[in-house]
Every structure is written in structure tokens, then in C-alpha cells.
Specification:
The protein is mainly α. It has nine helices and no strands. It is globular, with a radius of gyration of 16 Å.
Length: 183
């Protein structure tokens, strides 16, 4: 029963965490980040296929399409493609079944590093609700992975949940509308 509930939360959050951005036409998160998210979904989808985790693979396919739709609505430029080139290497790694697990975990880390660096310097431009839903989604998948004995999902999704939560925490003051105190 618990596995089914956690799976339901994971599926719901995962299938729609990119929807707020699609409605905003991608504003708030750089197109390169959305392309990196698409690559991340591709890597995880390849891992899931290699492991015959068909439900997980189908959710990654939904994410892949959603992330590409957000990137397309935002407009894709050459610089966006060059910034996301390292994920092409991770997708290539994921094509090799024995390398799919490390590629999936690395993709989870690689995707969040630019956003974490961005929130360190400035909190503007980070789309809070998408990252909150991403945090919930990855946390639920980590729990599901623990319940069904999938260590790659536990490790990768825990890394992703923590990274996404740090992005949310880093962007929180700007989202709450804090204004400088008058001197």
C-alpha cells in the first residue's frame, strides 16, 4: 500500500512539474537548463529501459517531451545548445547498460549545479514552483526506489531532491518578495 501511495505522488509530481513553466512560456529558467533537464530525462529513461522499469521509463518520456516543449516555447539559441553539450556525453554513457546507473546519477548532479551557482549570485530568474515540484517528485522517487530496492533511483533521486531543495531555498527570499529595508 505504501509503495502505491509513494508511486502515485511520484507520478503526479513528475508528470507535471514542468507545467507551470510551460504556462509561463519558460520564463524564469534558462532554455539551456530546460535542455539539460531534457537530457536528464533521456538519461534516466535509458537507465529505466535497461533495467526494464517501464513505468519509470514512461514517466521520463513524458518529462522529456515536457522539457523540450518548455525549451521550444522559450526559444532555443546556439549558446543554449553549447551549454548543454556535456549531457550529450551522459546520454551516450547511458546507452551502455553497465554505465547507465553512473550516467543517471551524474546527470542529476550536472543539471542542478548551474542553478545552485545562479542562486548563490542572484535569486532572480529561478522558477520556484517548478523546483518545489521537482524536489517533491525526486524525493518521492527516492522513497519508491528504497521500497522496491533500486539503489540507482535512491542515490540519483536523493541527490536530485537535495539539489532541487537547495535551489528552492536559495531562491526563497526573492520569491517571498523581500524588499531592502529602508536606511
Amino acid at each position: 500500500m505504501l509503495t502505491t501511495v509513494v508511486l502515485g505522488v511520484a507520478l503526479t509530481a513528475t508528470a507535471g512539474w514542468w507545467l507551470p513553466q510551460l504556462r509561463r512560456r519558460g520564463s524564469g529558467v534558462a532554455t539551456a537548463t530546460w535542455l539539460m533537464m531534457a537530457g536528464n530525462a533521456a538519461v534516466w529513461g535509458l537507465w529505466a529501459t535497461a533495467e526494464q522499469q517501464w513505468l519509470f521509463a514512461s514517466v521520463q518520456a513524458i518529462q522529456l517531451v515536457g522539457c523540450i516543449a518548455v525549451a521550444a516555447s522559450n526559444g532555443v539559441h546556439r549558446r543554449d545548445l553549447t551549454q548543454s553539450i556535456p549531457l550529450v556525453g551522459l546520454v551516450a554513457m547511458a546507452l551502455v547498460p553497465s554505465l547507465a546507473s553512473p550516467a543517471a546519477v551524474l546527470a542529476s548532479v550536472w543539471l542542478r549545479v548551474p542553478q545552485l551557482l545562479r542562486t548563490r549570485h542572484s535569486t532572480s530568474g529561478v522558477a520556484g514552483w517548478s523546483w518545489v515540484l521537482n524536489t517533491v517528485s525526486n524525493a518521492a522517487w527516492a522513497v519508491w526506489g528504497a521500497l522496491v530496492g533500486e539503489p540507482t533511483v535512491v542515490i540519483g533521486c536523493t541527490v536530485a531532491a537535495v539539489g532541487s531543495a537547495l535551489v528552492v531555498l536559495g531562491s526563497r527570499p526573492a520569491k517571498l518578495g523581500k524588499q531592502p529595508t529602508p536606511g
